[in-house]
Design a protein that fits this description.
116 residues; mainly beta; 7-stranded mixed sheet; 4-stranded antiparallel sheet; 11 strands; 53% strand; globular
Length: 116
Amino acid sequence: QVQLVESGGGLVQAGGSLRLSCAASGRTFGSYAMAWFRQAPGKERELVGFISSSGRSINYANFVKGRFTISRDNAKNTLYLQINSLKPEDTAVYYCTGPHPGNAYWGQGTQVTVSS
């Protein structure tokens, strides 16, 4: 079993930044890849990006365009998503999930709302 708990979301003005965290417990966190997804109102859930178990390999969706950074600290069992230059279209619930691919386990999500 893996338990995932996201935090760090909130209301922010366009152009601002947020750092989302995902605390993991259960199976050995450092042994599997992790991913971030997001779901905007009325839209399907979409992949933001994923990171290898070691953190040395990271892949992003095309829409990220350098504004998002995924990282992990295996010693702290924590996954991160840094989002800069936030836009209103980034408004969504952000989820962490793993092991990736397959994504058997999901957090409850954290709401990010960007005002214009």
